[in-house]
Amino acid sequence: MIKKVVILALIACSTVSCSAIKEYEKVYINDPDMVLGAKKVDRFQTNFHSYREAASGANGGKTGGGCGCN
C-alpha cells in the first residue's frame, strides 16, 4: 500500500510542471530580453580583427584607425 502511494506521489510531482502556454503569454516569447546576443569570444574576435586590419565591416563595431587608439 505504501509503495503505491509513493509511486502515485512521484507521478503527481513529476507531471505538475507540464502546462500549456496561454495565448496571452505567448507575447513574451518575442521579448527583446530573450534575443540571443553574440558570444563573448565572437565579440572579442570581431573587435580584435577591426583593430588589426585597420578597418571595420558591417558588424556595427568600432570604426577608425588600426593602432588601437580609438
Explain how this protein is built.
- With 70 residues, the chain is mostly helical.
- The protein has a domain of 25 residues.
- 40% of the residues lie in helices and 0% in strands.
- It contains 2 helices and no strands.
- The longest helix is centred in the first third of the chain and has 14 residues.
- The termini are far apart.
- The mean pLDDT is 73.
Concise account of the structure shown:
Keywords: Signal. The protein is mainly alpha-helical.
Largest sheet: none
Mean pLDDT: 73
| General shape | elongated
End-to-end CA span: 75 Å
For this structure, the quaternary state is single chain
Extended strand count: 0
Strand-pairing-aware structural class: mainly alpha
Unreliable stretches covering 5 or more consecutive residues? none
Helices and strands in order:
Layout: H1 2-15, H2 40-53
Organism: Zunongwangia profunda (strain DSM 18752 / CCTCC AB 206139 / SM-A87) (Wangia profunda)
Signal peptide: 1-19
Pfam families: DUF4266
Question: What are its keywords?
Answer:
DUF4266; DUF4266 domain-containing protein; signal; 40% helix; mainly alpha; 2 helices; 70 residues
